[in-house]
Amino acid sequence: MHHLTANENTRLLLWSRVREFAVPPTMIESATARRAVGDWAGACAAARVDVDLNLRAVGRAHGAQVVAQVRDDLRHLAPDLLRWHFPRIPPDGLLRPGLTVSLARYGPLHLVARTPPAWADAGQRISLALWDPGRPRDGAGAHPHPRPDRRFRLDLHRHLWDVRRVGELRERSGSAPAGGCAVDRWVDEAALLLRADGVADGVVAVRLNTRRWLAVAPSEARIVECPPRSRAGPVLPDAATWVLPDLELLRAGMIDADRLHPLVASALLPGHRAAETRNPDRTGERLVECRGATHRIGVVDGVLVPLDHDADEIRREELLVALGGPPLPCLRAIDDVHRHPESLVDVRARLDHGDAAGAIAAVEDLLGPDAILRGGALRDELETAVRRRLAHGLYRAGLLGGGGAPSTQDSRDTRRSRRNRLRHATH
């Protein structure tokens, strides 16, 4: 394990968090099962990928051969793997909003994956569509950037979404440990980019950050500082610029192979066999120091209750609290779990990454499936998630956009405020 710089550590902590919450195992299992029986649309639904494709219209405009190519690619698309590798942003590792990524090209036509703008990103959904440069806004609705982004493109990196090409992942992941840059791959990837764009020779710009750019000349196998005029030409895709995060996480000891996507694990670690999963042996009981004794609280009949006090005693204590008396420690502990549970940060992370089912399961495991949630930070987070889902639904329906949509900065400010409120609630 090599020593991490501060910047590397921040980046890897972000990706470690992404790997924990962004693509839950239940999603991978469900999407894989549906893809295995040829149900590509079902696999997309399981991976929270919306399909905005009209293949009949494509056939009329571009012919049956193009439709056959698109269908073939869709049958081999692993939407959960696409989500695993999709571009993300700090500080929470959410999907990069308002982005259009090219996955494949059929002449002028692009199969693209899109993310909604930040104000409508609840659920962290991705949509699939076909983009025609002759009809650039067709089917894009209120999307702010319907044109494929030249920096974030995966048509040259099918191993990040196409099950037929996953075997290339190890070779094309990069190996240089310095700052996460895949310098050892830049010349080959730049040559690949120029060939794909029909350019015999040239210079490819490499973006390291907003201020630092380099230039790669594949014919000379040379890397130099990038003059400003070169930035208007081909740009090395981000997927080729950086070492695969999973490889860095493994090297740093921040993830084990069993937490990787199975397709990624099989490519990076040939011969690896996943450990047998076992259900943890948990009673669900928690210990509370209550008036000089150690008591238990746990879920009974779907509700979190004190286990070492009888019903009559609980009724008396609740009456005393209603009259202004101090609460029984066991009852106070239950109230704290309802309002400010220790797992609140993880519940919110699941909500932010769109895993509503995982968040609800965590809450039910904590409080019981029949609990009536009390006022507090946990309830606020769940209610906020519902309101943001409504905004996404309005965006998908085309009922909000343009002047009626909150600004991206407003969305970021709201998310920052929620993070700060959560941090305060959990300390």
Walk me through this protein's architecture.
The chain has 427 residues and is of the alpha+beta class. It folds into 3 domains: 6-164, no CATH class; 167-253, no CATH class; 286-425, no CATH class. Helices cover 42% and strands 13% of the residues. The strands form 4 sheets. Strands 1-6-5-4 form a 4-stranded mixed sheet. Helix 2 runs antiparallel to helix 3 (40-46), helix 4 (55-62) packs antiparallel against helix 5 (64-75) and helix 14 (344-352) packs antiparallel against helix 15. The longest helix is centred in the last third of the chain and has 20 residues, at 377-396. The chain starts with 5 loop residues before the first helix and ends with a helix.
Which key features would you list for this structure?
427 residues, alpha+beta, disordered C terminus
Q: Topology of this structure?
A:
Blueprint: H1 6-21, H2 25-36, H3 40-46, E1 49-51, H4 55-62, H5 64-75, H6 79-85, E2 88-89, E3 94-95, E4 100-106, E5 109-114, E6 126-131, H7 169-172, H8 183-196, E7 204-207, E8 213-217, E9 222-225, H9 238-241, H10 245-251, H11 262-268, E10 286-290, E11 293-300, E12 303-306, H12 311-322, H13 329-339, H14 344-352, H15 356-367, H16 377-396, H17 408-425
Parallel strand pairs: 1-6
Antiparallel strand pairs: 2-3, 4-5, 5-6, 7-8, 8-9, 10-11, 11-12
| Total strand segments | 12
Number of helices: 17
| Oligomeric category | single chain
Averaged pLDDT: 87
How many structural domains? Answer: 3
Helix and strand element order: HHHEHHHEEEEEHHEEEHHHEEEHHHHHH
- Euclidean distance between termini CA atoms: 33 Å
